[in-house]
Amino acid sequence: MRTNARVLIAIAAACAAHPMLAVAQQWPDKTVRILIPFPPGGGTDIQGRVLAVAFQKSMGQNFIVDNRSGASGLIGTQLAVDSPPDGNTVLFVSGLISVVVTLRAKHVKFDVYNDLVPISWISSTPLVLSLHPSVPARSVKELVALAKRTPGGMNAAGNAAGTTAHLTAEMFNQVAGLKSTVLTYRGGGPSVLALISGEADYLFATAPSIMPHLRSGKARAIAVTTPKRSSSLPELPTMNSIYPGFEADNWYAMFYPRGTPKPIVAKMNAEIRKALETPEMKAFMPSEALDPVGSSPEELTALLKREIPKYAGVIRQANIRLD
After folding, report:
1. Domain contains 118
2. Are residues 302 and 165 part of one domain?
3. Over the stretch 276-309, which tens digit does the pLDDT of each residue have?
4. Do 89 and 235 lie in a common domain?
5. 163 near 183, Cβ under 8 Å?
6. Taking the CA of residue 78 as centre, how many other CA atoms within 13 Å lie in the half-sphere pointing to its CB?
7. Taking phi first (over 0 means left), then psi (-120 to 50 degrees means alpha), and beta for anything else, what does residue 65 get?
8. What DSSP string runs through 214-281?
9. Is the peptide bond before 28 cis (omega within 30 degrees of 0)?
10. What is the domain range of residue 166?
11. 234 in a domain, yes or no?
12. For residues 239 and 195, is the Cβ–Cβ distance under 8 A?
């Protein structure tokens, strides 16, 4: 009787699991939306569009990019959280998410650890300290000296308020003793436009958004913010080598809304890893100063648990507040 009971339990468990496996096998059975909570032209948007093409080729289903910007990424992220957990809405977000949960805590209506299901940490890139060509500085030390002797200080662009680019510019003011005005925009694309138009003197730019302008000569780079030099920009020193402890890694990752079936999460994770191995992505990533990662969901969770406390400390020390 005990043996029969165990057999029946095993059969029941298999029957319960079968529908979930069937869902994963059938997915995607309609257009999948890659929801990007930032405007077109920024680092997340550029990668998202290349990945969408790779997914479409691999899975034979349409993947579309849907830009929903506003509130430092909270509007689009909330939309993803509220989407049906059927695998057809994927949130593609930057490391900004590890900042806004602290900086805009009053406006965050979701629990980042419980309402979002990690899929994969996709890529990593430095922020690139970039100057308008008219700025007569060829190094970080020269920029600092110039900023200190400029009446009223210089203008720095900072992407959207509360982004890693914004906080990094504020950190620069703190560690270098500057009084630069940090101008914030609606995202990486608009802030880069402000730099190349001369509205801003310098910008800690996401690498994918600034690389085309570095190549065209519309901007000039003098440093990166990652602990080690960038493989795509090896000639640039790290900020850490000039100001010890000055580090910012602008990572990118994908999440699903809570309740998305585990087999779909696993399948999407596998598709991300497959996409990162394609010739197109292997050519694209270095050209945009991106380092592919392709992590497990668990590794992405661990990243969040490191990054959120780190930026919370930066925010407190700099006394940065947003309405």
Report:
1. yes
2. no
3. 999 999 999 988 888 899 999 999 999 999 889 8
4. no
5. no
6. 13
7. beta
8. HHHTSSEEEEE-SSS--SSSTTSPBHHHHSTT---B--EEEEEETT--HHHHHHHHHHHHHHHTSHHH
9. yes
10. 127-242
11. yes
12. no
Q: The whole model's pTM is what?
A: 0.77
| Residues 117, 140 within the same domain | no
Which range in 2-11, 79-88, 308-317 is most confidently predicted, on average pLDDT? 79-88
pLDDT at 176: 95
Res 214: pLDDT: 96
SS3 90: strand
Residue 80 lies in a domain: yes
Of 37, 95, 87, 98, the C-alpha closest to 269 is 87
Average pLDDT over residues 46-57: 96
As beta bridge partners, residue 159 has none
| Calculated CA dihedral for residues 97, 103, 109, 111, nearest 10 degrees | 50
**Residue 254 — φ and ψ, nearest 5°?**
-115, 140
Task: For residue 12, tell me if it sits in a domain.
Answer: no
43-59 helix and 262-276 helix, angle to the nearest 10 degrees: 100
pLDDT band at residue 2, thresholds of 50, 70 and 90? low
Distance CA 41, CA 47 (A): 10
DSSP string, 196-225: HHTSSSEEEEEHHHHHHHHHHTSSEEEEE-
How are beta strands 220-224 and 127-131 bridged, if at all?
Answer: antiparallel
SS3 (DSSP) at 119? strand
Average pLDDT for 199-211: 92
140 and 283 in a common domain: no
Q: Is 199 left (phi over 0), alpha (psi -120 to 50) or beta?
A: alpha
What is the number of domains present in the chain? 2
Q: What is the CATH number of the domain that holds 144?
A: 3.40.190.10
Please say which residue of 242, 274, 298 terminates a domain: 242
CATH of residue 59's domain is: 3.40.190.150
Instruction: Show the beta-strand stretches assigned E in the chain.
Output: 32-36, 63-67, 89-94, 116-124, 127-131, 155-160, 181-185, 202-206, 220-224, 252-257, 291-292
